[in-house]
Specification:
Elements (H helix, E strand, L loop, with lengths): L2 E2 L5 E2 L8 H39 L4 E5 L3 H10 L5 E6 L9 E9 L2 E10 L3 E5 L3 E9 L2 E9 L6 E6 L4
Parallel strand pairs: 4-10
Antiparallel strand pairs: 1-2, 3-7, 4-7, 5-6, 5-8, 8-9
Length: 168
């Protein structure tokens, strides 16, 4: 039996193919099973994307880059330095560079403190691009937080801060 939908063409339907209902049912079950199996990973990706957007929204005013481990990386950092108004260097007392340094940037305005950035510097060089204002920059070296206060805002100028390990 065939259904004529247009002119003399005939199209097969589930009514005229033996076992097609069972094939259709099996296909539907497979699609539902696949969807259920994939739901947790997709939910995790969606949740992570939401977390990423929330972090970006609170850190939107602060641009930063870190690196400087090895000669090539230091050279790359120096090439982009002009685009950042605050340059931080992490080292020990002998001048050897330090990496993997946790840091925070807190905006200080009218008696209020607002942490705008909290991350880990991959290398000894950390460059920040901040809107004009007063900030507390903190870095944890050898388990101890060191904080320095700085004012940014002079167009075309960059400031440099050094954080040095106090361990002997």
């Amino acid at each position: 039996m065939s259904n004529s939908l247009s002119g003399s063409r005939s199209y097969a339907t589930s009514e005229n193919r033996p076992g097609s209902f069972h094939l259709l049912l099996r296909s539907g079950v497979l699609v539902v099973a696949a969807a259920l199996l994939c739901a947790p990973p997709f939910a995790a990706v969606a949740k992570e994307a939401g977390r990423s957007e929330a972090a970006s929204a609170s850190q939107a005013d602060a641009g930063w880059i870190s690196g400087g481990v090895g000669d090539e990386s230091r050279e790359e950092m120096h090439k982009v330095a002009a685009g950042y108004d605050l340059h931080l260097v992490f080292s020990d007392q002998r001048g050897s560079y330090l990496a993997e340094i946790p840091f925070t940037v807190t905006r200080l305005a009218l008696g209020k403190r607002q942490e705008i950035l909290s991350a880990v510097s991959d290398g000894p060089l950390l460059y920040l691009k901040l809107p004009p204002g007063t900030y507390a920059i903190a870095a944890r070296i050898d388990g101890v937080w060191q904080t320095q206060r700085i004012h940014t805002g002079t167009a075309g100028s960059s400031r440099r801060l050094s954080f040095v390990s106090r361990a002997h």
